[in-house]
């Protein structure tokens, strides 16, 4: 026998009239009660579940979120984009209209122009960008219009309050250093690759990396970081140079973009079996690197949780009613080896 409205009211712990209002006039019922009725309908298999969902969706305020990511041809950002779209669809506390753009041109003038444009049509925005005066100026322009702005992955600064959603990058660097300290059989030279020093997450990664060794093991020699400019071709060239110029190198910390190029160079190099390499973000190329032994360890954003926290944080910043409420969310990071992927 199909569950009735009476059964649904009993399962939800509300009156029959409340259930009827949720179905026919949800705007007169508190959102928390709507959700209770919806979850109860799902649990008992109520025949009008589709009608309830439709009514609640129609009643929810549309929240316009804008997100600017980097190049869509890069696996990590493509995966992140898919996770963000999924999180927006699954968001239970409101209806999300997500404008998500991939920026192929990462020049400061282009990034600042895209930020101003997306800020004009959205109620809350976030972006992945390098620190630059042009970008900071664009952030302030968007903030002055009452639209909260948050940095994703890399913290950003401006005169106004800028939110941040990502990892504790200083701890990321110290964790990478801990791995070298504990895994390397003999202390030696460690190469460091960064994408661009204007990405504050990478700068903080390196700062934490060096602070660990100053505190715990001065026998390692940390080479000066080399910039890959987020390019796989440049990362490959920089890695090849490190191996040639420092034949006694014992490890490589790949903190920035272009990791596929670095992995290709490491595979071609005649490195000792105890060579240690630590990379950033779990995706298909780094997963393969862990499996074939090119990578020793990968530190990664928890992609699904990161996407969910981003959508939730941006939406709640709108409801808070002023830009000073931009989210400040630091997530725990994942650590992967060949044994746990």
Report on this model:
The protein is of the alpha/beta class and 341 residues long. The protein has helices at 5-12, 16-24, 31-44, 49-59, 75-90, 108-121, 133-144, 169-183, 200-216, 232-245, 259-268, 284-292, 303-320; strands at 62-69, 95-102, 124-127, 149-152, 163-167, 189-194, 221-222, 226-227, 249-254, 276-280, 297-300, 328-331, 334-336. Helix 1 packs across helix 3 (31-44), helix 5 (75-90) packs across helix 13 and helix 8 packs across helix 9. The two termini are 46 Å apart. The mean pLDDT is 92.
- Going by helix content, strand content and strand pairing, the class is alpha/beta
Instruction: Determine the strand fraction and express it as a percent band.
Output: 15-25%
Helix percentage range: 40-55%
Total E-strand runs: 13
Distance between the termini: 46 Å
What about the largest sheet?
7 strands, mixed
